[in-house]
Design a protein that fits this description.
Layout lengths: L17 H21 L3 H17 L6 H8 L3 H42 L4 E2 L8 H4 L20 H13 L10 H13 L7 E5 L8 H6 L4 E6 L2 H13 L5 E4 L12 E7 L9 H12 E11 L8 H7 L1 H5 L5 H6 L2 H7 L8 E6 L1 H8 L27 E8 L2
Parallel strand pairs: 1-4, 2-3, 2-5, 3-4, 5-6
Antiparallel strand pairs: 6-8, 7-8
Helix pairs in contact: 1-4, 2-3, 3-11, 4-6, 4-9, 6-9
Amino acid sequence: MLNTFQQVDHPILPKPTHDEGSRQEFTKSFKQFIQQGLLPGLGPVFGVRAAKAFEREHGRAPADRRDIRSAMVKDLYFQHYAAANRIAQELLWESTNVTIDRELPELIEKARGLSASAKGKLDLPEEFETPRYVTSIDIHCMPGGYAGAVAPDDISTGALYDRGVYLYAMGYMGPFNDDMGRSVCNYVNRRLDGFKPKRILDLGCTVGHSTLPYKELFPDAEVWGVDVAAPQVRYAHARAAGLGLEVNFAQMNAEETRFEAGSFDLIVSHILLHETSGKAMPKIFQECHRLLAPGGYMIHADLPPFDNMDPFTQFILDNETWYNNEPFWGAMRETDQVALAKAAGFPPESVKFDTAPMAIMEFVAQQAAGYSQDASAAVSDREFAAGEYAPGGGWEVLIARKA
């Protein structure tokens, strides 16, 4: 699919100059060249060259993604691909930070004004301990990580994330960066038999980009987004207000929130789990079970576990672990998430993996007018099969329902 989407402007989105915008567009195009021009060459390089070299050295064929990596890291083509990918990642943050550094005082003032006028709540405790698995590394090579702060009432990493995600995804997260939220909303619409949650919680919401579609789909629901990073939460609250949606945000840890037991009907997350840790994941599942009312759903959207992929695809995805500061990326995909959900108290028959087709692909396929939750009504009633818009046609969702 040719990406024609541009990011939709809103009051606190950084506003690049002509030259800054050109540099940012270059980083997006560079990433697209790597994905479409260099990545497809890895398969032939492995089959024709690297696998045979591995077999000559070891007397056997590569058996898993670790063997494949051992074979590929010695190949000049893969080295070129990996270096280009890392450079593109660093460039997208650097090109965006130039704009943010120039505008930061103005952005902070805008965010303060929007939050002051917002109907949604903003809960920022005076003392909060951000987990070490977030603070100890610049995840995605993002300067300062998720939680870095450089000024009072800082929103800089929120602004960086909002613009950076659009560039990183090459626009395929949609003009509001909300494709995951819209995709899960569409899944709820078509698969959960008239389910109408009254209270919804988005765990690890960052800038609330995936949170807002739930307020659009369920306008009468009370919607909360929580994250461990104060700059993200501040930005999310102001961003929602700037986009005209009443959504509540709070700085909380998904492992142990401050909400009462049984207080939510739907709990979701979007690419949260692979940025936690082996010790955090079971606690998050247990907290979801505690917070859900009877009959409520837990839905975590991410990429599939490794046991659903061939070894070469595992190797490709695991490059995020090795080259993009994602230490839990590979380990999370080897974790038995179904077993964790059962251990947290969810009935075994309620736990499953499924695919939520990407909303942006559906809109393009249906030639829908506009990109909004209203426009999705035309496509949310028909059935989709996993991989219909492959490759990259859907988000893997882990679903469980409290008894």
